[in-house]
Specification:
Blueprint lengths: L23 H13 L5 H14 L4 E2 L20 E2 L2
Antiparallel strand pairs: 1-2
Length: 85
Amino acid sequence: MDDAGRGAGNGAARGERLQIMLNPDELKALDNFRFELRMPSRAAAVRELLKRGLAAEGFLSAPQGARSTDYGVLSAEEPRPSKRR
């Protein structure tokens, strides 16, 4: 069961719903990450990945004109972003 609508572990209520579409390989990668870390739900796994990604050094900005379809979870080639300052 997903944890949408329930309070987060830090006591904060979830107020926004974010919907994303994943292809079968991306979903499998997410589920593998979730099960390896024994996460209670896909939503918890996505939150953990967001937390790790936002904390990562060398975060890159999207190039001007980039589209959502330019990005994938498992794609070998990403758009060429510029370093964020």
